[in-house]
Amino acid sequence: MRGKPLSFCLAALCVLAVACGADHGAPVGQPAGRDVKGPVHAAAPSSSAPEPRLLQQFDEGRVGGRPYYCEITSGGHPAGRPAVWVSSQKNDAGDAETVGLGAPSVLCLSGFPKSGPITVTVKAQGRTYTTPLKRVTELTPRGQSDDSLFDGRAMEVTDTGNGLLESGDWRFLPSGPHREAIGLSGRLELTARSGDVTAANAEPLSREPGAATVEGWERSHRIAVYGYPVGARVPIGLYRIKNSSERQRAVLERQIGHVVMPRSRVADFTIPPDAFGAVSVDASPGKDAYCLSVPAVDRCVTQPV
Q1: Which pLDDT tens digit goes with each residue over 220-255?
Q2: Helix (H, G, I), strand (E, B) or coil at 122
């Protein structure tokens, strides 16, 4: 640098610093052209999605929901023509036939022969699940799991008259991968067959917000949260059920966590140990009980195991 003015040297050093910073100091992104997928529940909150808020209190123990048995919901299926659908209890006032996650549900068929084997097939995200039906004169109480129609086990149905076959009711909450597949497709694709008689139905999935304990939650400590807009940050609340209240009023104690709604609009939440200890056991005599709930739901979504 002999003979060079000081200003020239400083300028050269600045150029070198900028060049080095561009090579080594900038954040490293994903390689171009690659679709890198993380866990579906790890989606970032959307700035445009509404932020649901927990209710400050609600009256627990109220019974609600519309009737959902096959005879009531058969009006949308012409008499005498083969049909298959799942009828779910709903709290909203909509008339559309939809299947509801976490809702008491029954399988319905009409227009099928009075004898002979029947199978029902569900298609979800490229996979097929087949359930044989077993005709009985009396349904076995509590004979079906939450994963019915996906676990391959035979499902009992009984003739209720007027050409209707109806299963026992169960809570429609398929296990994790199946639940996510149904959420992504937004519908339940059903096909029923008996000999050369066939009926098919693509039944929309209800997007009514809610949550429910998954089967075996006493071991996994998990609840399923569903129906909220994609990207919404959904808080989970711990509620105290006042023992002295005649109406069993549930009052919000605190938020214990949240989920961010993925594209499937179905997410799992693992209950923290301290909260699980409170909601999974019956209250001692004279003591308050606890439960969990989510926004827009005015009831407990957990019950003691």
Answers
A1: 999 999 999 999 999 999 999 987 656 789 999 999
A2: strand
Q: Are residues 105 and 131 in the same domain?
A: yes
User: DSSP character for 200?
Assistant: E
Please check whether residues 179 and 237 belong to one and the same domain.
no
Residue 301: is its pLDDT beyond 70? Answer: yes
**Domain identity same for 143 and 166:** yes
In 3D space, the residue among 9, 220, 200 whose CA is nearest the CA of residue 123 turns out to be 200
3-class DSSP string for 117-172: CEEEEEEECCEEEEEEEEECCCCCCCCCCCCCCCCCCCEEEEEEECCEEEECCEEE
Using alpha carbons, list the distances in angstroms from residue 28 to 24, 25, 37. Answer: 9, 9, 17
Beta-bridge partners for 207: none
Measured between alpha carbons, how far is 291 from 302 in angstroms, rounded to an integer? 6
Dihedral angle, C-alpha 149, 155, 157, 163, nearest 10 °: 40
What value does the mean pLDDT take over residues 67-90? 86
Only one residue has tokens 């070198």, namely: 16
Whether 152 and 265 map to the same domain: the answer is no
Q: Is residue 12 part of a domain?
A: no
Q: How far is 102 from 209, CA to CA, in rounded Å?
A: 10
CA distance 127 to 110: 26
Task: Tell whether 9 is covered by a domain.
Answer: no
Same domain, 200 and 213: no
Number of neighbours of residue 203 by Cβ within 10 angstroms: 18
SS3 71: helix
Q: Which pairing describes strands 155-161 and 127-135: parallel, antiparallel, or unpaired?
A: parallel
CA 262 to chain centre: 11
> Domain span at residue 280?
208-293
| Cα–Cα distance measured from residue 173 to residue 105, given in angstroms and rounded to the nearest whole number | 10
**Lookup: tokens for 181:** 């597949």
Element (H, E) at 185: helix 176-185
Q: Identify the CATH number of the domain in which residue 181 sits.
A: 2.60.40
Last residue of a domain, one of 204, 231, 263: 204
